[in-house]
Every structure is written in structure tokens, then in C-alpha cells.
Write a structure and sequence with these properties.
Elements: E1 10-13, E2 16-19, E3 21-24, E4 42-46, E5 52-55, E6 60-63, E7 79-81, H1 92-98, E8 104-108, H2 112-118, E9 121-123, E10 127-131, E11 134-140, E12 160-166, E13 169-173, E14 192-196, H3 207-216, E15 220-224, H4 230-238, E16 247-248, E17 256-259
Parallel strand pairs: 6-7, 7-8, 8-9, 13-14, 14-15, 15-16
Antiparallel strand pairs: 1-2, 3-10, 4-5, 4-17, 5-6, 10-11, 11-12, 12-13
Length: 261
């Protein structure tokens, strides 16, 4: 794995030094999160496409930031997570806006060129990174061949979605994935599920999204990676099929939601 940045990225919190570690595990083993309390302040902002920004009291985490405007120079990143190298998920121009000297970049190990560029940490599905109270777990992300067309996100590329545990409150960012069998491993582990709505040739769509939500059993579902008007259509057509325990939160691009205790 590309771990060259580990030696530079050491967090000091309450006088205790935490070195970054990667732990390969055979399956996802995380304490049950559905009853977890929300940390004092956690805000999620839906950026554009699949981009999100998570802000805690002292950390700022980006996933797949794309098409950011210059104002984000004042919102620099503690962590940047990239799911795969497609241009609407890995956007160097946006990364240059939010970069600072000690930004930690995490992306699939298969993105070898980009890892060198950002002195990043390469991960494969089921790798775990611990940074004090923040635990980042790489998970599976892939699509399947369609007729004679190859998969746009092949499983063998080891592209990554992410579980982001902030003081026991867990976000799951699916990236560009279909509804995959591995989601059964996430049942009961996720508070906020961020899943794409399409297009179906690139990601899950329609009932695939519903089936993924119900497999993951998250408390909240926030749609990402959607076209104009897609969210209201999805809600009207499929919202009633989502398990009642899951709250659907519809955010327009650039809108925020604060999770409260």
C-alpha cells in the first residue's frame, strides 16, 4: 500500500499522539451504530454530484469534492477521500482549493499516479484507518457488465466506498456502486447512508437504491449523484418502499444538514 504519508500525518489530541494505522480485516467489524448518539456538532453538506463535506467541531472531511468554487479556499480539508478516478469524483482543481500542508488524502490503492501526486494513503476494501476519534473504513464499490459492455467500475479494480465513523456516528458514502451483495455486512452499522440515484449504467438506480437502503438499515438516507429533478421523481415513485425506520433527507446541491443529539 502507498503509506508514505503516514509518517507525516500524526494527530495530537489532548496530549496523546495517535499514529495512523491501517488494519486489514476479513470482514467489517464495527460496534452497532443505529443507537449511537450524534456527536455535539456534525454537519453534512452535499456539494455537487457525489461530493460531500462533513464538519465536526474540529475536523473537516471531504469525499469526492467536485466543481468547487474559490470560496472553498477558506474551508481547507483535514481529510480528502476519493472513491475512484473518474473526472466527476477526482477533480484536481477542487483539491487544489482545499489542500493544506497536512491534508490526509485517502484513495484506492489502484490510483497509483494520483497517490504519488498527493502523497496519499492507498487502501483496498476492508482496510481501516484510525485517526483518534475518526475511523475510516474502505468498503466495496463496483458495477457490473451490461450486455456486451464491460463494467464501468470493475470489481477487480478494488475501488472504494467509505464508512466514516465520527465519535461513533457513522456515515456511509457508496460512491458509484450498484446494489451489491456486500451491503449485507453493513446492516446495523450505518447512521447516514449516502447512495447514488443514477444513471443506471453507472450506478444503482430505482429499486436497486431501495434494496440497498433496506439492506444497510441506516437511520437516514441522503441521495447523491443525481440529475435535475431526479430526487422528487425517486421519492414519488419509490419512497414508500423504503423501510419506515429510515428517514429520507432530500438535499439540493450545496445544501447542508445538521445532525443533532
Amino acid at each position: 500500500m502507498a503509506l508514505s504519508k503516514i509518517t507525516r500525518n500524526i494527530l495530537i489530541s489532548l496530549g496523546v499522539i495517535f499514529a495512523v494505522t491501517i488494519i486489514a480485516v476479513p470482514s467489517i467489524v464495527v460496534p452497532l451504530r443505529n443507537n449511537a448518539e450524534v456527536p455535539p456538532t456534525v454537519t453534512l453538506k452535499l456539494l455537487y454530484n457525489a461530493g460531500i463535506m462533513i464538519e465536526t467541531e474540529d475536523k473537516r472531511i471531504y469525499v469526492d469534492p467536485y466543481n468547487l468554487n474559490p470560496a472553498y479556499e477558506d474551508l481547507d480539508a483535514d481529510f480528502v477521500l476519493i472513491t475512484h478516478p473518474h473526472g466527476d469524483h477526482y477533480d484536481p482543481a477542487s483539491l487544489s482549493l482545499i489542500d493544506k500542508e497536512d491534508t490526509v488524502y485517502i484513495m484506492p490503492e489502484s490510483m497509483s499516479t494520483q497517490l504519488i501526486t498527493h502523497d496519499g494513503i492507498g487502501v483496498n476494501p476492508e482496510d481501516v484507518l484510525e485517526y483518534g476519534s475518526i475511523i475510516i473504513t474502505a468498503f466495496y464499490m463496483y458495477t457490473l457488465p451490461v450486455d456486451t459492455f464491460p463494467a464501468s467500475h470493475p470489481k477487480e479494480a478494488n475501488l472504494t466506498s467509505y464508512l466514516i465513523d465520527v465519535d461513533g456516528f457513522t456515515f456511509f458514502h457508496a460512491g458509484d456502486s450498484k446494489n451489491i451483495a456486500e451491503y449485507a455486512q453493513l446492516a446495523g452499522l450505518v447512521n447516514v447512508a449516502l447512495l447514488p440515484l443514477g444513471p443506471g449504467c453507472q450506478t444503482m438506480t430505482d429499486m436497486e437504491v431501495v434494496n440497498a437502503i433496506n439492506a444497510i438499515e441506516g437511520q437516514y438516507f441522503i441521495p447523491i449523484h443525481y440529475g435535475e429533478g431526479a430526487c422528487p421523481i425517486f421519492i414519488a415513485s419509490y419512497g414508500s418502499y423504503i423501510m419506515s425506520e429510515c428517514q429520507l433527507i432530500h438535499l439540493n446541491y450545496w445544501e447542508s444538514y445538521e445532525f443533532e443529539q
